[in-house]
Design brief:
3-stranded antiparallel β-sheet; globular; 4-stranded antiparallel β-sheet; 1 helix
Length: 138
Amino acid sequence: MPLVYRGMRRDADGFPMLGETAKTLGVRAGFDIDVLQGQAVVNHKGMSVNPHWRHIHPFFRPKRLGFGGQGSNDLHCFRAGEGPFAASGLCEGLELVPDAPENGVIRHGVLRPSQAIPIEKYRANIAATREMWQIDEA
């Protein structure tokens, strides 16, 4: 799995909180992912991830870290994986699709379904990665 970062709320067990918000491990149907007849559509959308926590959008980066973070301090920068931030298949049914570089630097990408599948299966595939995520704010 490529090394990816995401700003999320931490659950009581230290892993990311599951949910259907921008601040949890999951996706919002119709916003983060397009859904057609109950199927998650394979396009440029998916769960947002970044190649480093400093590239996480300021609204999802906790203020306590500085670096322009504007997010609540109940957010944490989680990381999963260890390979390069490049287009690749991930865990079952997920693939990383990086955005085009900005000024030569890739700052964002999405974890999308690798094929059209029911939205609940896509969410289950994301949830199955939960114990891979750990806080990394160094």
